[in-house]
Amino acid sequence: MADPAIADAFHAADLFFVDKDDRLNYINREMAILDYNSYRQEAHDDGFAEGKAKGKAEGKIAELQALVKDGLIPLETAAKRANMTKEAFTQSMNTVQTKE
Length: 100
Hints:
By secondary structure, this protein is mostly helical. The chain contains four helices and no strands. The protein has one domain.
């Protein structure tokens, strides 16, 4: 090896891995860290996807509410497109109007 620091590091690793218990503890700790990071990333990705889907659904309903409010489509059509009952859609419109 050209760099003495790298050679020293490999030598230290060789000495460290001579002890079987130390090696197993090290491997188990590294595996636990990798598992933790993997689960954390998966949870983040799932949360992001869930939030994105929820935002799309809310945006679709808001757009349908605006179309009904402007008189461009009937309430029944908007409720059907939103996969809601007419009553639930009307309630959602009332909720939005009270927030404004």
